[in-house]
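seq as requested:
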Amino acid sequence: MAPAEVADIFRTYGPSYRETHKLPLTHLRTMHAIETCRTAVLGGHVDECEECGHIKISYNSCRNRHCPKCQFLKKEKWVEARGKELLPIEYFHVVFTLPDELNPLALRNREVVYTILFKAASETLTDLAKSRLGVKIGFIAVLHTWGQNLMDHPHLHCIVSGGGLCQGKWISSKRRFLFPVRVMSRLFRGKFLAFLKKAYEENELHGVGEEFTSLLKNLYAKEWVVYAKPPFNGPETVLGYLGRYTHRIAITNHRIIGMENGKVSFLWKDYADGNKKKVMTLEATEFIRRFLLHVLPDRFVKIRHFGFLSNRHRKECLDACRMLLGVKEVGPAVVETWQESLLRITGIDVTRCPLCEGRMRRKELYRGPP
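struct tokens:
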């Protein structure tokens, strides 16, 4: 089986898929971006070594947030920024998952349903922190819409502070315990379904008929899955987690084994079978369909900050937290070029000649084919 990346699959089978499927503009733009990423189509630049004359052509990245090749440096810089905001406290990992019965509705109304997911989960955590601890907590919520098999599985990963601010004081939560899972689950269920019902009554949902009332009744009777993991083992563990999860896309290139005879094979972890690693083989058209399930609406924000980490009040709240916890103020961020950031993070110096270690100089821009 020939090695392959998502871009290879799109370039090989994408044209026929687009001919036989009516796709929204967002999906078409995403496919085009991934297919042309780091190719001559997007242009680039030519560098020449000042010592030996070696020529190196570098093509531009597409910078699409669903592209497997364009997340690394953006992720690392984001994680570094978040690292400066971490406090010497416990952090908890809470996952809010939507029942499978909501998947068809979510696919037809992604922006509405995903927005409600953020709102219901954030209000659940905020309300419980206020009622049980009397504090304003801080947390980051990250939307994932997929399972390991690439099917739709909307859920929210939340990194929650183990304590918060209350009238000029810092109050910590109980060690190794945030809130009762059943309480979180039922409050989340009630809030989500109330917001969903309101969206239905205001005609914000598409493709919904008379069966909505029956769906709502079944969902109220069902226990929803909210998973609260033990606290992280220190800020370093939180950073490692953020690096793995925040800028993740539905599938990375290293999981793809290859493509052959119109089929694509990739590795996946079967959580229902003891987390065993398995190989799944799909028709290329089905692989593309599943990948596109997870293309988010334009400008939809998949990482959001709440409580004392919300964008509007983050600086003053964090300053107050640091003062109460006796933490030194973090210095200003260092402004770097992408080349300097890449060198510091990975040790790769793209300004040096790969042959003689001489200095590479920009010779000309390549603007791509006309």
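The radius of gyration is 23 Å.
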